[in-house]
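Sample intake sheet
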Amino acid sequence: MSASPPTVLRQRAALCDMLDALSDAQWHAETLCEGWDAGDVVAHLLVREREPIPAIGIVFPPLSGLHDRRMAARKARGRERMMADLRGGPPPWMRLPMLRDVQVGEDWIHGADVARGGAALADGPTIVPSDGTEDADVATLLWKAVGRFAPLTLRGIEAAGVIDLTDGTTHRTYRVGGPVARSANGAAPDLTVTGPVGELVLFATGRPNCDVTLDGDEALREAIEGARRSV
């Protein structure tokens, strides 16, 4: 019996299958990334994994213009060419252990950006968004993504307390109310955010349309819901 493909390639294949199934109207609909359609998302992923210097512009503002220009150049090649490149999988250096684990999260998050954006309302096939639990290996890596992004988007919340993100079994707990969200494992939470791991990733990255429940301190909940949290 043949071995299952590596997780990074399974997630890439799932992303490409969903994107390939989109109608033209769905492909051009705005995603959860404001101002981006599916073509922009694909172009971003390709630049991020294949062009290291422009990719720095994602997090380094002086190079953001270069990143945007390279995105535009990729997008100008058209849907078919971009999808062929994306389906080819991440390049070899992005399959190294640490980078491939991050790549799984990136592919899943940006797939959700498309599936939960305007494409869900545009004419075309029905899109069934994933909650991240279908593949146990992907779910494990999505928990790592929660751990990467939650401290970034929860910092500076204008209310202090302990926030617990949980699917009912696994937990990530943070003390917030200052310039940095700090790990607070074992502390009693003031606010509990509950949902499947994929929904918690969307919450941790500040995306709208995530299916989570927030229970506990009202002031802390309102501070989180009123904050601009996005990465």
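Comment: Residues 168 and 194 are 7 Å apart (CA to CA). The chain has a mean pLDDT of 94.
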